[in-house]
């Protein structure tokens, strides 16, 4: 019996980053030759479609191998949040903080995977709901591994925010937007907006304004258990403001003046498979030196 006998893998591929699925087919061939079973998901299939493809809900993958960049990893995280399937990222993108395996080290990574020479990190996620000012109720819950961001929509005007934490008013200010991030998301939009970089295994919530129109507004670090509510104000002219809320840069909701976004720690987590013994600080140093 081979070392991969009885193991099942899903290969999720960002097709534009793997033209002709060259790397995808290579991974499948490598794993199947060693006794493992693989299915390929390269056409934006959801996890439910993957299960149906396998003939029902009983199919259980040992790992989802994600080919692309961090954006593809975030998509995979959303689709596996309910199942807890661990993710292994192969970086076919640029920076790749989440996708740790580089193409030149692919064979070694697959060998470690088959031999179960890895650790699994549980990363916290955020959960967001929109509370409508018109009384129409809350939207469905949406989960995010990296961040929930509010950005302007339409004319280039300042967004007026009012922020509560655990029911108490924290601050009010005008800005181009706000990032509510997890430690995993600290190296994403949060970092670009000037927020701190945090070890991804930590448990906390980051609030970082995007281009704040004041001199005394900085990032704020909160407990993971805190509840954050952001209310959208009116434009300075008194007209209704319209903004976008994005979950991991993908799922988009529209908010208007008076609407509130409630963000808390999600009851879901993302399982990230780690093959390398490099620490977060070592990986961070390498990425920043590239």
Automatic annotation (TrEMBL):
It comes from Eisenbergiella massiliensis. InterPro entries: ATP-NAD_kinase_N, ATP-NAD_kinase_PpnK-typ_C, NAD/diacylglycerol_kinase_sf, NADK. The lineage of its organism: Bacteria, Bacillati, Bacillota, Clostridia, Lachnospirales. The active site is at residue 70. Keywords: ATP-binding, Cytoplasm, Kinase, NAD, NADP, Nucleotide-binding, Transferase. The keyword Lipid metabolism does not apply. GO terms for molecular function: ATP binding; metal ion binding; NAD binding; NAD+ kinase activity. GO terms for biological process: NAD+ metabolic process; NADP+ biosynthetic process. This is NAD kinase. GO terms for cellular component: cytoplasm. Its cofactor is a divalent metal cation. It is found in: Cytoplasm. The gene is nadK. NAD(+) binds at residues 70-71, 75, 146-147, 176, 187-192.
